Amino acid sequence: MSIGCNFGYTKVNLLAYADDLVLLAPSWNALQTLIDAAAFAASKISMTFNTKKTVCMVFNPSSRGKLVAESFPAFTVCNCPLLFVNQFKYLGHIIDNSFSDDRDIAREIKALFTRTNVLCRRFKRCTCLVKLRLFRTFCLCLYDTALWTNFSSGTFNRLASCYSKCLKSFFGYPKYSSVTMMLFELGLPSFSTVIHNCAVSFTSRLAACDNVLVSCVSRLSM
Asked: In angstroms, rounded to a whole number, what is the distance separating the alpha carbons of residues 61 and 56?
């Protein structure tokens, strides 16, 4: 029985970042086996699982003909059943079992509005130069945009609109001001430029990474 998922010629069944673990398996039995192994290893070092934060997600195959079942029995860790979810936030990124990035884009829209509102409340009376530094620091750092590959145009356009609204709100421009004129006067990049720069930065860091798994996934995505 295979208890890992194949990425090219690399079999992966565990992703770990500090105390956040992701178990990957191609079948129900394989995942339960991994959960049992993780629970046994944790017991050896007196660690316990937070079952309220431990959830399971099923990714269906793209072809309905390869679908094994519509539902599965509950997985258990230390005899405690785990919940099934359709989406989950891992390391700040919302993963959806439909492979859609719309919910993660909606998360970024909310985050951008929140950061801008904080800046407006605290630094409304600052000079334009100070505001520019603050906006570049806190509002041009869109999170994991380079990972978005499957999303609706409507959701993406709402993020573009959010960027323009945040600019106008923080710098005091009227609601119907020309975005092009505003960007020219402030010397700030357009939304499409911000997205492009994020993609270029991610690609360069990806190319420089010597992690075997990252390199394998990178080759498969080309």
From this structure: 16
Determine the straight-line distance between the first and last CA of the chain, rounded to whole angstroms: 30
Classify 12 as helix, strand or coil.
strand
Written as six digits, the tokens of 57 are: 């997600």
H/E element, 98: none
The answer to whether 35 and 11 have CB atoms below 8 angstroms apart is no
Which positions ≥6 away from 153 have C-beta within 8 Å?
none
CA–CA gap between residue 5 and residue 150 (Å, rounded) = 22
Long-range pairs for 74-83: beta carbons < 8 A, 24 or more residues apart: 75/28, 75/31, 75/32, 75/35, 76/32, 76/35, 77/35, 77/36, 77/38, 77/39, 77/49, 77/51, 78/39, 78/48, 78/49, 78/51, 80/51, 82/35, 82/51, 82/54, 82/55, 82/56, 83/55, 83/56
Q: Is the pLDDT of residue 4 over 80?
A: no
Highest mean pLDDT among 36-40, 42-46, 88-92, 127-131: 127-131
The two beta strands, 55-56 and 83-84, are: parallel
The full 3-state SS of 66-96, as one line of letters, equals HCCCCCCCCCEECCEECEECCEEEECCEEEE
Which residue(s) pair with 92 in the sheet? none
CA dist., res. 33 & res. 25, Å (int): 9
Distance CA 182, CA 167 (A): 8
d(CA 171, CA 186): 9
Pairing of strands 5-7, 10-12: antiparallel
Please tell me the predicted confidence (pLDDT) of residue 79: 86
